[in-house]
Design brief:
Blueprint: H1 3-17, H2 20-37, H3 47-70, H4 74-88, H5 97-111, H6 119-129, H7 136-147
């Protein structure tokens, strides 16, 4: 079952259950998919683009959450947190920091990276191989830590 079919089924289930939090998150994903499909780029929705769409939605909400916390707006921050939890269900299982560190360490050895000058090479390879299993920020922090 692809993401669109899963979203439609989950949307129906959330409507029946009157799950307002679930509805908000699922509708956000459905909206992002519709925008992608009608963007006119000619790209077809595949598993890689689905992951990118979901990661983008999560990143947007995390950025908003950070702003709301800084501005002391707990009611808006809680909405963003709830939506993040719902949207994250559609990503592959995320790697723990230990698993990520092990993966990046092995990749650095494989690529022969020697320092910060090789960060771009390591980041590109890591992002390509871990599609959806870790967010870009945690990958970047880990690569910086291990190359420093």
């Amino acid at each position: 079952m692809n993401l669109t079919e899963r979203i439609n089924q989950d949307l129906k289930a959330a409507m029946i259950a009157k799950d307002t939090v679930g509805l908000r998150g699922i509708r956000a994903i459905k909206s992002a998919i519709m925008i992608f499909n009608t963007s006119g780029t000619g790209e077809e929705l595949n598993s890689e683009s689905e992951i990118k769409i979901i990661q983008k939605l999560i990143k947007q909400r995390k950025d908003s959450l950070e702003i709301f916390v800084q501005q002391n707006r707990p009611e808006l921050a809680s909405i963003e947190e709830e939506e993040i939890v719902v949207i994250e269900k559609y990503l592959p299982v995320q790697l723990s920091s230990e698993e990520l560190e092990s993966f990046v360490t092995d990749l650095i050895k494989e690529l022969g990276a020697a320092g910060m000058k090789d960060m771009g090479k390591v980041m590109g390879a890591t992002n390509g191989r871990l599609a959806g299993k870790a967010d870009g920020k945690s990958i970047s922090e880990m690569v910086k830590k291990l190359l420093a």
